[in-house]
Structures are given as structure tokens and as C-alpha cells.
Amino acid sequence: MAPNPDRSTLVAPDKGTDSDPHLALPQWAVEGEATKFAAAVGRVHGTRIGKLPTVVDPGSQPPAAHSMAGKQQDQITSYYCGPAAVSEALAHLGISASQSTVATQLRTTGDGTAWSGVNANVSTAKTGYPVPDVLNYHLRNSSLRYYPVGYGSATSTVIANFKTRAVADISAADPVIGDAWETSSSAYHLVGHPRDRTIFHWYTMFGYSSSGSSITYEDSAHSSQVSWGSGVPEYSTLAATKLATINAGRGYVW
Fold this sequence. Notes:
Elements: H1 27-45, E1 66-67, H2 81-92, H3 99-106, H4 130-138, E2 148-150, H5 156-171, E3 176-182, E4 199-209, E5 214-218, E6 235-239, H6 240-246, E7 251-253
Antiparallel strand pairs: 1-4, 2-7, 3-4, 3-7, 4-5, 5-6
Helix pairs in contact: 1-5, 2-3, 2-4, 5-6
């Protein structure tokens, strides 16, 4: 399976179909994501899931709003939104890795960076999801782990879970990476993105407000290498409902 393109010269596909295989995660990754999500629910909502305590210390619950300092990077080629988003995320985590270095690790090609179906060029566990694999490679000496969350449409449950995951990660100073799928028929678009074409685009989320109802993100398409980049702000805020819908068909990495 070829990587998902993030360039703007494609014929728009049917938004309701997804040619990406959404590879099944290994069991250890399924269990790891489930454990991380249960902890997020317990922390954000104080709700029992699995073996978590019924309540959490109110003092440990995230604030209603939180934002890290922005780390936006202009992507250095028209198809480097994936490397830029990963490099930005790592910068939030105190790790320096250039877009060029990360692009090699992600196996980014002229068609962009894959959501799934491509093993990352790293020496640690490979799941077929290059973005979380590369993040985890750089975090191999840390307890933090990233996992992909893929879905076909933004149901109310998907949106609620997206908000929970985003609040849990961002309040802990851990950015979240989205993989937008925008077409001419999409209900919502990232700020400044053209509405007359198909765009697959990685971007980094680093802030939230109203307990996750609004999410702030940085956009590497603010770049002279992108034909329409002059109209894209470095930083924008959108409703979580809109971002969850924009990511539908691909997903996000948290």
C-alpha cells in the first residue's frame, strides 16, 4: 500500500471510503492503547474503567484549559507535513529531530507519509503505523507511548473519546498528531486550507480550552513550499467536533 498523499493535485475520492488498510495493531499495542485510554478516562472524568479506581484525586484532574508553547515548523517540501508534524511533536517533548531525519525514519516519499501500511525505518517495534512508531523510537527511554486511533466517521462516541484523549495528553504536555482528510465535499477544513481539492495532511495539536471542546493546533502548511500555504496561519483553534470530523477516514495519534 502506497503512502497516503498529502499533496493537493489529486482527484477527490469518495469521503465515505478509505483505501488505507488501517492495519490491525499487534496485541501488545491494542492492550497498551486500552490501558492508556482507561487511565485517560479515569483522570479526565474520574470514571471507573477496567481495574482503575472508581474516583481519582480531584487535584490530579486536568484543568479546563491548557496550552503548551507553540513549536510550529514550516514544512521544507510540499509533501513533508508528516515529518514536520512529528518533528514539532518531538520538540514539544524536548527532543530535537530534523524534518529530514524524521522523513527517513517515516519512509516519507513524494506521495507523503503513510497513515498505515508502512513499517517505519527504526530499530524498535514496528506496527505498520509509521508515525507512532517513530515517536516511540525517540521516546524509547521514556514511559510515554503513542498509539494510533483510526475511525471511519466522527460519531458522538468518537468525538467524546477524542476530547478525552486530547485533554489527557495535552494537559500532561504531550502533543497529539492528527491526519486530516479534506475534500471539496467535506463539511469542515483546517483553517486556510483550500476547499476545492483533496488534501491529506498531518498536523500537531498542543492546546485545548473548554475542557477539550476547542483544540489549538500548529500547521506546517504555513510554508512557501506549499502552493496555498500563504493563506494558512501558523496556529489555529477549531472545535473538537470539527477536528474529529476532519480526521475521519484516517485518525489521530496520541
